[in-house]
C-alpha cells in the first residue's frame, strides 16, 4: 500500500489557466482552486437523458486533457505531489521507535496519519487534509527528526559493492529487508548477513536458510537449469562455502548516476554503520517539499 500527498496550485483561483474548451462548459464547475466535472443540474428524481450521458462520456476525456495542461504546473493543477510506499513508512516508523522518546506504533501509519519526530499527526478533517499551519509544524519536526538521528545510536545495515564501496541496499538494524522473491527462493538481508531462503516466506526459519554470508562473491556459471536459466555460484569468501542458484544474483543501478545500466557486483559486503539524516532523505525530502508547497500556496495537503 502506498499513500499519495498533493497540493494544488492557485492558478484556478487567480484565473491563470487556458480557457475551457466550449463544449465542456456546461459540465465544469470551478470553485476557488478546485474544478469539478459533473452533470448539469436536473430536477429532483429526473435522470440525465441518454444524450447527456453520451456527451458526458465524450467530454470527460476533453476535460481530463484540459486540466492536465491548463496551467504551467500541469498535472491537474498540482503544485507538488509525492507517493510514499509502505516500506518507507515502516522504516521511518521503526527508526522512530529506536530514537530517544520515539513512538512505536505501526497503527499510526494508516493512510491518514503521518508520524514524525515521535509524534502522530492526525489530519484535521475526515477528508484527509493537512492545513498549511500544520505543515509549518511538520517542517520543523523534520528538522528535529534529523537532529535526533544525528545524535542517536541508530545503525544502518548496508549491502555494498566492494569494488566501488557503493551501498546499493540498506535497512535499519533489526529490520529484515526483502530483496527479491522467486518461485523457490527468497533473497533477504539484515545485520546477520545476506540470506537465500527456501520458499517465499515472510519470516526467517533457520531450517529454510540455504545460504548466509556477510562477505561473498557471485559468478555466472556455464550451467543451465531445466528451465533454461543460467545458474550462478555464490561463494562465502571467508568459509569458502558455495551455493549454486537458479539464476538468482544481485544487481543494482547507481541512483546518483542517471542513465546507468545495471551493474552486477563481483564481491559484496554486508556492513553496519551509524545512521545519518541522509539515510532518511528519500522520505524527509519529498515530505518537506509537499509541506513547503502547502505553506507557500496557503493550500491544504490532500491525502489519498
Ligand atoms: Zn498552476
Helical/strand content category:
alpha+beta
Distance between the termini: 11 Å
Average of pLDDT = 85
Cα gyration radius (Å): 25 Å
CA-based shape: elongated
Give the number of helices: 4
Largest sheet: 6 strands, antiparallel
Helix content: 10-25%
Largest sheet, order of strands side by side?
9-8-17-14-15-16
Number of domains: 2
Quick one: how many beta strands? 18
The portion of residues forming beta strands comes to 25-35%
Indicate the low-confidence ranges by residue numbers.
103-112
SSE ordering: EEEHEHEEEHEEEEEEEEEEHE
Bound molecules: zinc ion
Task: Characterise the protein shown here.
With 304 residues, this protein is α+β, with helices and mostly antiparallel strands. It has two domains: 100 residues, no CATH class; 118 residues, no CATH class. The protein contains four helices and 18 strands. The strands form five sheets. A six-stranded antiparallel β-sheet has the order 9-8-17-14-15-16. The protein binds zinc ion (ZN). The site of zinc ion has 6 residues, from loops.
Structure characteristics:
about 300 residues, alpha+beta, 2 domains, six-stranded antiparallel sheet, four-stranded antiparallel sheet, 4 helices, 18 strands, elongated, binds zinc ion
Amino acid at each position: 500500500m502506498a499513500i499519495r500527498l498533493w497540493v494544488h496550485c492557485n492558478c484556478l483561483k487567480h484565473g491563470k489557466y487556458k480557457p475551457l474548451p466550449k463544449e465542456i462548459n456546461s459540465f465544469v464547475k470551478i470553485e476557488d482552486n478546485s474544478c469539478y466535472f459533473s452533470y448539469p443540474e436536473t430536477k429532483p428524481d429526473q435522470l440525465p437523458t441518454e444524450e447527456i450521458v453520451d456527451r458526458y462520456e465524450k467530454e470527460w476525456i476533453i476535460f481530463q486533457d484540459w486540466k492536465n495542461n491548463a496551467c504551467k504546473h500541469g498535472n491537474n493543477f498540482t503544485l507538488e505531489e509525492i507517493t510514499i510506499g509502505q516500506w518507507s513508512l515502516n522504516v521511518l516508523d521503526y527508526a522512530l521507535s529506536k530514537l530517544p522518546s520515539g513512538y512505536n506504533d505501526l497503527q499510526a501509519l494508516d493512510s491518514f496519519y503521518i508520524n514524525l519526530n515521535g509524534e502522530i499527526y492526525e489530519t484535521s478533517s475526515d477528508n484527509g487534509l493537512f492545513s498549511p499551519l500544520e505543515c509549518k509544524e511538520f517542517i520543523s519536526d523534520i528538522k528535529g527528526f534529523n537532529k535526533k538521528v544525528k545524535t542517536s545510536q541508530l545503525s544502518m545495515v548496508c549491502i555494498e559493492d566492494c569494488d566501488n564501496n557503493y551501498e546499493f541496499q540498506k535497512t535499519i538494524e533489526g529490520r529484515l529487508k526483502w530483496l527479491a522473491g522467486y518461485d523457490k527462493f527468497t533473497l533477504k538481508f539484515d545485520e546477520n548477513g545476506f540470506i537465500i531462503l527456501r520458499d517465499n516466506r515472510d519470516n526467517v526459519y533457520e531450517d529454510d536458510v540455504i545460504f548466509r554470508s556477510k562477505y561473498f562473491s557471485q559468478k555466472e556459471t556455464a550451467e543451465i537449469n531445466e528451465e533454461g536459466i543460467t545458474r550462478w555460484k555464490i561463494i562465502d569468501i571467508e568459509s569458502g562455502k558455495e551455493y549454486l542458484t537458479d539464476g538468482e544474483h544481485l544487481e543494482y543501478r547507481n541512483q546518483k548516476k542517471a542513465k546507468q545500466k545495471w551493474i552486477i557486483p563481483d564481491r559484496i559486503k554486508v556492513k553496519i554503520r551509524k545512521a545519518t539524516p541522509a539515510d532518511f532523505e528519500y522520505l524527509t525530502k519529498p515530505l518537506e517539499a509537499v509541506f513547503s508547497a502547502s505553506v507557500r500556496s496557503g493550500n491544504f495537503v490532500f491525502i489519498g
